[in-house]
Design goal:
The complex is a heterodimer of chains A (927) and B (274). Chain A has 927 residues and is α+β, with helices and mostly antiparallel strands. In chain A, 57% of the residues lie in helices and 13% in strands. Chain A has 24 helices and 18 strands. In chain A, the strands form 4 sheets. In chain A, strands 5, 6, 7, 8, 9, 10, 15 and 16 form an 8-stranded antiparallel sheet that branches. Chain B is globular and about 60 Å long. Classes of the chains: A alpha+beta (927), B alpha/beta (274). The interface between A and B is large, with 30 and 41 residues.
């Protein structure tokens, strides 16, 4: 080695080094280009690489924090503010954020006059200016048609927003959130659901039917039925009255509550709770008026309605079950139609309604008879009256029977068309008829109960006063004192006085006016006039005063999912609301196209789909990897296979989706539904099919024979037998393909769900196909992970096992697989995490934005693989970018994203725990 | 050194086999056995008789084919692709390499212990009874009898009898190797093959294994490969010296180590080459 002397000039150095060759020069520092030293030592690269790491981590953390913040914010109860506007209106809502925006002169046309002038002032000579705006959740969709609104600073009046304490946030079953002041809660006690009242109702309707048969030849007075009906009505009044008295005595009247009674003319009058009810009282209601009493009455009503709701849900489930049984029966009818190749289902369908009529004819007559018999109990009839009624009734029955007989004859006539059918078909038709009649009877019973419960649920409602963006009735602002004349701040009393003046100016007569303070410089005023009551919000900062009328809105308590008073919540209450919203989100069904309510079906759908995917992909992937690693002799074919598998992992997932739809859904699913024809294959005629069956039998025998001949250890095997083994493999492949062809071209198979066609069962997107598609998608992950785990199993263990006389499979099962299990597990979990978050293929193979029916539930047969399902990842896309109101769905999108991230993290966490547990078992294997 | 030179040039040579070996009752006869890894010939026409109930040691420098020969006895070489053989071995009258021999049945008749202890990742009990488990034995009584007998046979019983259900991986290296011996003798093999069983152990553990082998003598026919000449002289009844795939000399251990017939053997034993 030559050491060059220090020299900056490279050419000189070259000469020197040649010249210096023979004599040893003392070792000197090697020359380094100036400025290179810092780079060469690498300190700057520490900073560069560390900085890149920080940038990468920072982006990920920022993403997670952003999703976390927005996702958690969605359910956090914000305070509700009321913003006074320049045009005199007031807008209530939850301010989400205040943001800055820029505007041009051309964008100001939609603003009100005052606001535009302010905006133009701000612009001055500049083309563009900056301004602030509030993003406000205004709710009250049914009134305004909006969920959110931007309020820019020009539209807001100079007064600051105020936070009234008794405003409510109401989450409703329909139309989203509602913001308003509750003015009263009304709970009506209705006697119409009482059994006694209902019997009288039935009797009255029977009497009116009988009325039609009163004629001279029967010698029955035409007044008879009217008279009895009147008598019954007084009975009804009596029973209603009795009921109301019981209610009145049992109703505790709290502070701020009172009873009202309905007079005969339909008007409501206040009623002292300890006084006696007037006998003509029709209905009674409890009214709560003060903010506190409305709140407590609401809590009570909500609790009682929750119980009713449970019962209603049960009944509705029963009803659905009933319907599905009828559908099932039609399906089995269609099956027998297909089986016996006779067409009769349309004629059966024609008959169905008549069968029901005929079936209920007797029941109806019997119920009339019962009512008639009970008439005497309700109001005693004289013997003559009873006999007369009897006569009328006989007429009715006669006529009814004539009609029924005619219908029966007609039905019998139409039924004759079935006579040529085989007995099995006739039996099927009779069975269907029985099911139909049974189920219809059941349905009527359930519907009756549902009607009663719904009646009861609708009895409580709350009247609200709401601000309304679009239809504010403003008080004439020109009557307010001008700004110039009131430069100094006015006292609160003065503002009120101005407002009173304004209101009086508006009202025709000087009616009573009451006011309550609801915030600094804000008042609630109630104006009683001949036109009724009008509520007004008044606010003023001393310089101006403005008042906005409020809109009445009535909400049934049963419609309310959750209500709270946002400006009175303590931090604990806020957490309560937050938690209850999360619970709802995790356990309930979605409402309003997924913008409100829960996401349980999506969570469940995602989890079930991922689990089934894992069940499919693990055996497939592990077996494939076992073959590659343990059985296949490594060579170029295995090498190519391995590269191909690794590349499969990089194929865009939507391609798998297309494959899933085109092959799994349409071909395989179509085949399951309706046989080869539905899957797009032309079946062979049966002789050709049998011929092919014979050919394949011969081929498979040949394959069996060749592989039998060429069996044995490869060590003692000659070249001919090695060749024979390859041949055998090839023939086995042929046999397999031939078998698939036989299935695909079978003229005998017509599908498992032929009766349901043309509606596809498996021939469309569904849970199994989605799981299978994802299983294909994640297969490379599992194969690669398993192969790695298998190759990490020490060979000495395999040898030890073989030396004990274990076979290949015994060694794999008892030694290799248990040892590779942690690695296989890791691969599986990675696959699951990837599969759970995959969206693109889901759009094609079965995820829907709304599918309440769960793919795995408590209904027989529990697993419904053909059902469409909801999926969290797909939901993010559908809700945020495909919905009708994506702006309103934005908070929900963030929450869903958060949930999806949490599920994936949870899966990974479980995987890590499991893996480390398994690993601990194999500690000490390496020393 | 002519003989060694001839071997290095690929010539066939005759082995010097002492008469006293031939007088023993053989359990395993190796007949004209040759083995190739691909094109490379690793064993050249080996002829040997392994006496019944005795300990036979295979010695020789690295790469001389001792392990290949040992692993051919229970056909572990089948697991490698690209191996070809000629000749045959006969175990108690049954050919080992004849076509149609069931390799798995064959291996069940032998036990093997490897260089590095390789207990399976399961309990001590399951490790020992593994050969019975794979034969489908379910009788608890018989399994625990065999377990005790084997562990006693491998002098491990007293150390592990209270923790049979603990993992076999928790034992020390020497204990693990004795566990492997217990596993190897659990199925009562005709031949016990030991492939340098002490090379990964410390001297104390080596001593224990050696005394164990000493105890196994008589009950089992042991074929042991070792690098350690002292070990061979201490424990074996017969010693075979191999070099470059040939059997050079084979005879009673005392004879081989004191007055071998060939100079090459003496040179190797005294450490002059190898």
């Amino acid at each position: 080695m030559t050491d060059s002397p220090m020299n900056a000039d490279p050419t000189m150095r070259a000469d020197n080094s040649l010249a210096a060759e023979p004599k040893r020069v003392p070792r000197a520092h090697r020359p380094v280009a100036s400025g290179l030293s810092v780079l060469a030592r690498g300190e700057s690269f520490v900073w560069l690489s560390g900085g890149m790491l920080i940038v990468a981590l920072g982006m990920i953390v920022a993403l997670l924090l952003f999703v976390l913040y927005r996702g958690l914010l969605t359910f956090w109860p914000l305070a509700v503010a009321i913003y006074p506007m320049h045009d005199g209106g007031m807008v209530a809502g939850e301010p989400q954020e205040i943001e800055s925006f820029s505007y041009e002169a051309s964008q100001l046309d939609s603003l009100s006059e005052t606001a535009r002038q302010l905006a133009i002032q701000r612009l001055g000579d500049k083309p563009i200016a900056q301004a602030n705006r509030v993003y406000l959740r205004v709710g009250n969709f049914d009134l305004s048609g909006k969920h959110y609104e931007y309020l820019n600073e020009f539209e807001q009046s100079s007064e600051s927003p105020f936070y009234p304490s008794n405003i409510w946030v109401v989450e409703r079953l329909h139309s989203g959130r509602f913001y308003g002041f509750p003015s009263r809660l009304i709970e009506q006690f209705d006697a119409s659901a009482l059994p006694a009242t209902q019997t009288i109702e039935r009797a009255t309707s029977l009497l009116s039917m009988l009325q039609g048969y009163a004629s001279d030849d029967l010698k029955v007075s035409s007044e008879l039925t009217t008279e009895i009906a009147n008598r019954l009505n007084s009975k009804k009044d009596k029973s209603t009255f009795d009921y109301l008295v019981t209610v009145q005595q049992g109703t505790p009247i709290g502070d701020g509550e009172y009873l009202e009674v309905m007079e005969q003319d339909g008007s409501w009058k206040p009623f002292e709770s300890n006084a006696t009810l007037p006998p003509q009282a029709n209905a009674l209601r409890l009214v709560a008026v003060t903010p506190e009493s409305v709140w407590s009455a609401f809590q009570l009503a909500k609790a009682s309605i929750a119980g009713l709701q449970n019962r209603l849900d049960e009944l509705q489930a029963e009803l659905a079950d009933n319907d599905s049984k009828i559908k099932q029966s039609r399906l089995s009818l269609r099956e027998s139609e297909l089986q016996y190749k006779f067409i009769f289902i349309d004629r059966v369908a024609d008959l169905e309604s008549d069968w029901v009529t005929l079936h209920f004819a007797e029941t109806e007559l019997k119920s009339h008879q019962n009512t008639l018999a009970k008439l005497n109990d309700l109001s005693p009839l004289s013997a003559v009256e009873f006999a007369d009624l009897q006569k009328l009734y006989e007429r009715l029955e006669d006529e009814y029977r004539t009609q029924i007989t005619a219908l029966q004859r007609d039905v019998d006539q139409r039924y004759k068309i079935f006579e040529g059918l085989p007995t099995e078909c006739l039996q099927a038709i009779a069975a269907h008829r029985d099911v139909l009649l049974d189920r219809t009877t059941e349905q009527a019973k359930i519907n009756e109960q549902i009607g009663l419960i719904e009646l009861e649920m609708r009895s409580s409602r709350i009247e609200f006063q709401a601000t309304n963006v679009d239809s504010v009735q403003t008080l004439a602002p020109e009557n307010a004192p001008s700004q110039s004349s009131a430069t100094k701040p006015l006292a609160a009393a003065t503002v009120l006085g101005i407002a009173k003046q304004l209101l009086w100016h508006e009202a025709e007569s000087k009616d009573e006016l009451s006011s309550t303070s609801i915030g600094p410089q804000a008042w609630w005023m109630t104006q009683q006039s001949s036109n009724g009551t009008q509520n007004v919000l008044v606010s003023g900062d001393g310089a101006t005063a403005q008042a906005a009328t409020l809109v009445n809105s009535e909400i049934e308590v049963a419609e309310i999912v959750r209500a709270y008073r946002p400006n009175q919540l303590t931090i604990g209450d806020k957490f309560g609301v937050f938690a209850s919203r999360w619970v709802e989100f995790l356990t309930a069904n979605p409402r309003e196209a997924g913008m409100e309510g829960g996401f349980f079906p999506a969570i469940w759908g995602t989890v079930v789909m991922t689990m089934i995917m894992a069940l499919m992909v693990v055996p497939l992937g592990v077996l494939a990897a076992l073959y590659l690693r343990e059985y296949a002799t490594s060579g170029w074919i295995v090498g190519i296979l391995r590269i191909a598998i690794n590349n499969l992992a990089g194929v865009p997932s939507v391609v798998y989706g297309v494959f899933g739809l085109a092959f799994l859904c349409y071909v395989v699913g179509g085949y399951i539904d309706g046989g080869p024809a539905k899957a797009g294959f032309v079946p062979w005629p049966s002789p050709i099919w049998f011929l092919m069956l014979g050919v394949i039998a011969v081929v498979s025998f040949a394959a069996f024979f060749v592989s039998f001949l060429c069996s044995g250890s490869p060590m003692t095997m000659g070249p001919w037998r090695r060749f024979g083994r390859s041949i055998a493999g090839f023939i086995w492949l042929l046999t397999f393909l031939g078998f698939i062809m036989l299935l695909a071209k079978s003229p005998f198979f017509h599908g498992f769900y032929e009766a349901n066609l043309p509606n596809p069962t498996f021939g469309k997107g569904g849970l199994v196909w989605a799981s299978l598609t994802l299983a294909l998608l994640t297969l490379p992950v599992v194969i690669v992970a398993t192969e790695e785990a298998l190759s990490a199993v020490p060979n000495s263990l395999r040898e030890g096992s073989y030396a004990c006389g274990a076979g290949k499979w015994q060694t794999i099962r008892r030694i290799v697989l248990p040892h590779a299990r942690p690695g296989i597990m890791t691969g599986t979990i990675l696959a699951m995490a990837r599969g759970a978050g995959e969206v693109a293929p889901m759009m094609l193979v079965g995820a829907l934005p709304m599918a309440i029916d769960l793919p795995l539930d408590t209904e027989f047969p529990f697993f419904h693989g053909s059902r469409s399902f909801m999926h969290l990842g797909f939901q993010i896309y559908a809700l945020g970018f495909q919905g009708q109101n994506s702006e309103a769905a934005k908070p929900m999108v963030f929450t869903t994203t958060l949930l999806l991230i949490l599920i994936v993290l949870l899966l990974n966490w479980i995987a890590i725990i499991l893996r480390s547990r398994l690993r601990r078992r194999f500690q000490g294997i390496h020393f | 050194m002519d003989r060694l030179k001839a071997i290095a040039e690929g010539e066939e040579i005759d082995s010097a086999i002492h008469d006293d070996v031939l007088q023993e009752n053989p359990i395993l006869k190796i007949q004209d056995f040759s083995l190739w890894y691909g094109r490379k010939q690793a064993l050249h026409r080996i002829n040997m008789q392994i006496p019944h109930g005795k300990v036979t040691a295979l010695i020789g420098p690295s790469g001389c084919g001792k392990s290949s020969l040992l692993r051919s006895v229970n056909r572990m070489n089948d697991l490698l692709g690209n191996v070809r053989i000629e000749g045959d071995m006969v175990l108690s009258g049954d050919s080992i390499f004849a076509p149609g021999v069931d390799v798995i049945e064959l291996r069940k008749r032998m036990g093997m212990v490897f260089q590095k202890p390789n207990p399976f990742p399961m309990s001590i009990f399951e490790n020992v009874v593994y050969p019975l488990r794979i034969d489908g034995e379910r009788n608890k009584k018989r399994l625990s009898d065999v377990c005790e007998k084997s562990l006693r046979g491998s002098a491990l019983w007293d150390e592990v009898k209270d923790r049979l259900n603990e993992s076999g991986l928790g034992l020390s290296g020497g204990q693990q190797q004795r566990l492997c011996i217990a596993r190897a003798i659990a199925s009562d093999p005709e031949v016990l093959l030991l492939d340098e069983p002490c090379s990964a152990l410390d001297p104390l553990a080596t001593g224990k294994i050696e005394s164990l082998i000493d105890e196994l003598r008589g009950d089992y026919s042991v074929l042991i490969v070792t690098h350690n000449m002292q070990q061979a002289s201490r424990i074996s009844d017969y010693t075979a010296f191999m070099y470059l795939g040939r059997l050079i000399e084979y005879g009673r251990t005392s004879t081989i180590f004191t007055k071998p017939k060939l100079k090459e053997t003496e040179d190797y034993i005294t450490g002059r080459f190898g």
